[in-house]
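User: Predict the structure for this protein chain, please.
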Amino acid sequence: MKNNWLDEIKWDKDGLVPAIAQDYQTKRVLMFAWMNRESLALTAEKNEAVYYSRSRQRLWHKGEESGHTQKVRSLRLDCDGDVIIMEIEQVGGIACHTGRESCFYKELQNGEWVSVDPVLKDPEEIYT
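Assistant: Here is the predicted structure, written as C-alpha cells:
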C-alpha cells in the first residue's frame, strides 16, 4: 500500500496526530488516543486500531492486553488535516480501561463530574 496519503496529514511537533474512535453503528465516541505515522499506516494495513502510547513511548495495538480490539470500518481526516476519526467495531463492547463502553463516561451535572455509564467488566478481570 502506498503511504503518500500519510504526507497529507499535519503531524504535530512530536510527529503525532489525534485519533478519535467512534462506534460505526451508534456513532458514540468511544475513546481518544494518539497515532504516529507508523501506527496509522499499520491501522490502515491491518484494519485494526494501532495507537502510539506517549507514556510507554511505543506502538500500542488496542486490545493487546485486554482482547478488546477495534476493527476499523473507515478512516477519515478532518478538513484541516490534523485529526483522524475512525469508525470502528469495538470487539467485546469495552473500549475503556475502566471496563466501560466509552472513555467518555463522566457527565457534568450541577458542577460535578458524575459517572453515568456502568462498568461492564471489572478491570482486574480484564488486566491480569
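The first helix runs from residue 37 to 46.
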